[in-house]
């Protein structure tokens, strides 16, 4: 049981009081014919009014349920149908991971610092615009024999982790002490191949591993790759006298001064404002 209230709206989205109609309390049911008004507003009125916008009008509809029926309605609505069918979680990542490991149907080989990695061009192209431009342009030539791509300036273990992410949308398992170093390398790879989710995952891991030994290099990395969140976290960490004094006793501070002197000024300004 409910009522329906219809309002003609002006250009500002407010109800036009002279064109409001409300039905009586009526029973709505599945398969019913519904309730409303065969005549709501005259065409002549609309054409002369200022409520038209690009020959269109807006009408709002409120469904009103009386207070004494709301509790009953909520109980019915909140009671989901019970099903005995157990739907397993998605295992697409496992299947694609097996495809990467098994190399069936692989049609591209990457040469990375003397190591070879087999992969599937269409999958890489679906995940990265950079891979798409790099690989699908060569699809006609060498389609039968496969394509070989040389990757410079990247460690083999980093490219292997990159492929794992592309196929499974997750990073491979690694020791905790490896995470910070790998995250730095993968952040550069994510920027290179335009993988925004991997980039954010790496930023998050680097934020969690910030300490005096990593803060300077991480800050430089954040500045080079325009990682605002990571840069802010590094500056917040270093803008304490204790952390800054420890950093100044390391080679990392000299690297920071030479690479990004403006960042040092930003840290000092932050420290002075506290």
TrEMBL record:
Q: Where do the BTB domain residues begin and end?
A: 106-175
Q: Which SMART domains match?
A: BTB (SM00225)
Matches recorded under Pfam families: BACK_BPM_SPOP (PF24570), BTB (PF00651), MATH_2 (PF22486)
Biological process GO terms, please?
protein ubiquitination
* Metabolic or biological pathway, per its Swiss-Prot or TrEMBL entry: Protein modification; protein ubiquitination
Give every MATH domain span.
1-63
Say which family it is in: Belongs to the Tdpoz family.
Q: Please give the name of this protein.
A: BTB domain-containing protein
Organism of origin is Panicum miliaceum (Proso millet)
Its ancestry begins with:
Eukaryota, Viridiplantae, Streptophyta, Embryophyta, Tracheophyta
């Amino acid at each position: 049981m409910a009522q329906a209230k219809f309002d003609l709206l002006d250009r500002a989205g407010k109800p036009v009081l002279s064109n409001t109609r409300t039905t009586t309390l009526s029973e709505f049911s599945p398969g019913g014919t519904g309730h409303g008004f065969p005549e709501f507003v005259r065409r002549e009125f609309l054409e002369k009014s200022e409520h038209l916008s690009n020959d269109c009008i807006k009408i709002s509809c409120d469904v009103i349920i009386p207070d004494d029926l709301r509790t009953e309605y909520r109980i019915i609505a909140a009671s989901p149908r019970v099903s005995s069918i157990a739907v397993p979680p998605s295992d697409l990542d496992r299947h694609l991971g097996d495809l990467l490991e098994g190399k069936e149907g692989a049609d591209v080989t990457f040469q990375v610092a003397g190591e070879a990695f087999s992969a599937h061009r269409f999958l890489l192209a679906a995940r990265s615009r950079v891979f798409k431009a790099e690989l699908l342009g060569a699809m006609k030539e060498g389609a039968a024999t496969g394509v070989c791509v040389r990757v410079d300036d990247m460690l083999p273990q980093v490219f292997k982790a990159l492929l794992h992410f592309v196929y499974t949308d997750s990073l491979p398992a690694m020791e905790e002490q490896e995470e910070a170093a790998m995250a730095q390398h993968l952040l550069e790879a994510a920027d290179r191949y335009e993988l925004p989710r991997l980039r954010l995952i790496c930023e998050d891991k680097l934020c969690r591993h910030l300490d005096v030994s990593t803060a300077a290099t991480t800050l430089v990395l954040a500045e080079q790759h325009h990682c605002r969140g990571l840069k802010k976290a590094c500056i917040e960490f270093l803008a304490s006298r204790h952390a800054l004094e420890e950093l100044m006793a390391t080679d990392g501070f000299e690297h920071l001064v030479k690479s990004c002197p403006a960042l040092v000024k930003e840290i000092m300004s932050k420290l002075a404002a506290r």
